[in-house]
C-alpha cells in the first residue's frame, strides 16, 4: 500500500513533531524558536500555528520558516490554544508529538533524550520534569512525581494526582 509506506517513511523521517500554538508572542518567539531549531535531534518537524495575533508574530514565523525547512507555519485566525493544538496535531507526521508554548524553551538535548528513551522502551507517553522561571528570576524545578519510579506504568496504575496538568512536560 503506497499510502501506508509513505506514512511509515515520514514517521522515520520525523522522529518528533513539535506543535506550538502561538498568539501575540513577538517578544519571546525568536528565543523560543532558537531553542527548538537548535535541538541535537535534527529529525523533527516544527508546526507553528498562529491564532489571531495582532503583533508581528506571523512575520517572525515566516522569517524562521525561510531559514529552516523543518518549520511549517500556518495562520488560522482568532482561535483558542486548544483548537490551534488540534490543527497542529492534524498536520503532524512524526512518530511522537511534543507540545510547546511560545514562551517556553527546550534544553538542547531534550528531544533527543526523550525520543530515544520513549522509542527504546516502546513508551506511549514519556513524562519528564521541567524548570519554571518565576517573575523574580528564581528558577524552580518542577518534578513529575511519577519520574521517581523510573519504570513503566499502565494507565490503571497512574493517578491523576501524580501527573502534572501540563502538555509540554510529556512526549506523546
CATH-level-4 superfamily name of the domain at 2-121:
Spore Coat Polysaccharide Biosynthesis Protein SpsA, Chain A
Number of helices: 5
Structural class: alpha/beta
Enter the CATH topology name of the domain at 2-121.
Spore Coat Polysaccharide Biosynthesis Protein SpsA, Chain A
- Give the overall pLDDT as a whole number: 84
Query: In one word, what is the shape?
Result: globular
Share of helix, binned: 25-40%
What is the percentage of strand-forming residues? Answer: 15-25%
End-to-end separation in angstroms reads 26 Å
The CATH architecture of the domain at 2-121 can be named as Alpha-Beta Complex
CATH hierarchy, class of the domain at 2-121: Alpha Beta
Number of beta-strand segments: 8
Which strands sit side by side, in order, in the main sheet?
3-2-1-4
Amino acid at each position: 500500500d503506497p499510502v501506508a509506506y509513505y506514512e511509515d517513511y515520514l514517521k522515520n523521517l520525523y522522529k518528533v513533531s513539535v506543535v506550538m500554538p502561538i498568539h501575540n508572542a513577538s517578544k519571546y518567539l525568536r528565543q523560543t524558536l532558537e531553542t527548538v531549531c537548535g535541538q541535537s535531534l535534527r529529525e523533527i518537524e516544527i508546526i507553528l500555528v498562529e491564532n489571531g495575533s495582532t503583533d508581528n508574530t506571523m512575520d517572525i514565523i515566516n522569517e524562521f520558516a525561510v531559514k529552516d525547512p523543518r518549520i511549517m507555519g500556518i495562520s488560522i485566525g482568532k482561535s483558542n490554544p486548544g483548537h490551534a493544538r488540534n490543527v497542529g496535531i492534524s498536520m503532524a507526521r512524526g512518530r511522537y508529538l511534543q507540545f510547546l508554548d511560545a514562551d517556553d524553551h527546550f534544553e538542547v538535548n531534550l528531544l533527543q533524550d526523550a525520543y530515544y528513551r520513549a522509542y527504546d522502551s516502546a513508551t506511549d507517553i514519556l513524562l519528564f520534569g521541567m524548570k519554571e522561571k518565576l517573575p523574580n528570576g528564581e528558577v524552580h524545578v518542577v518534578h513529575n512525581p511519577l519520574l521517581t519510579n523510573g519504570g513503566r506504568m499502565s494507565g490503571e496504575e497512574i493517578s491523576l494526582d501524580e501527573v502534572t496538568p501540563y502538555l509540554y512536560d510529556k512526549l506523546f
